[in-house]
Specification:
235 residues, mainly alpha, three-stranded antiparallel sheet, 11% strand, globular
């Protein structure tokens, strides 16, 4: 209100701020996120607290989410690659600063009316990385509310090491980027089961349907996708 500008305010769930240690970790993460100043990353402006409520103040990004764009009209290879290159620029800058997204998916990517791609929620998944798989410790009301929308949707883009609950680094973002690019090109998810368990099993054990890629997909892009989606993290 002091500057009179429109912003996005992301109120953090109590699990992020319930302990002093965890809140301190999140504040350190917020400061690091605020240092990310890049045209393809939604800017973090501040961290605010009031009583038991903690919130991030962020850039308000106009436009459509990528999942909506894919679902509504699909994307040709040229459009998909133009978006993908902007996502890569954002990932590269963040990774250079040691920030891993951990939850890259079409719902966390927006395109402005000017055609600029913005990646949202960089690094926020780090504070809650354990909950994405270890749902046993989530409050029942939270899990029931988000099971199909957030938990299952996120599992579709998890790397195999993330699905196993193992430590992750920037390579998990490279995997997720491959999933996003595959979905842009095919209009379908690379790994999707009827349940959370099925989806995680597909991520760990199965290959995507490579035949679903359009015939016009350049060979170099096919090789890129195969490299992104290799299940062995060492490769």
């Amino acid at each position: 209100t002091k500057l009179g500008r429109d912003v996005a305010i992301k109120v953090l769930p109590p699990e992020f701020t319930s302990s002093a240690d965890r809140r301190a970790r999140f504040e350190r993460e917020a400061r690091l996120l605020a240092s990310l100043n890049h045209p393809h990353i939604a800017q973090v402006y501040g961290f605010e607290e009031s009583d038991a409520i903690a919130a991030l103040v962020m850039e308000l990004v106009p436009g459509e989410r990528l999942d909506t764009i894919i679902g509504a009209r699909g994307l040709g290879p040229a459009d998909a690659l133009a978006i993908a290159s902007q996502i890569c620029d954002a990932l590269e800058v963040a990774h250079e600063k040691g920030i891993v997204h951990r939850d890259l998916k079409p719902a966390n990517i927006k395109m402005t009316p000017d055609g600029v791609v913005k990646v949202l929620d960089f690094g926020l998944a780090k504070a809650g990385a354990g909950e994405l798989v270890d749902t046993a410790h989530l409050p029942t009301r939270t899990f029931e509310r988000t099971r199909q929308g957030v938990i299952l949707g996120t599992a579709t883009y998890m790397s195999p090491e993330q699905a196993r609950g193992q430590p992750v680094d920037k390579r998990t973002d490279i995997w997720a980027f491959g999933c996003v690019l595959y979905e842009m090109l095919t209009g379908r998810r690379a790994f999707a089961g009827d349940s959370l368990t099925d989806t995680l099993a597909y991520v760990i054990e199965r290959e995507p349907d490579w035949h679903a890629l359009p015939e016009t997909t350049p060979e170099v892009v096919r090789r890129l996708l195969e490299r992104c989606l290799r299940k062995d993290v060492r490769r």
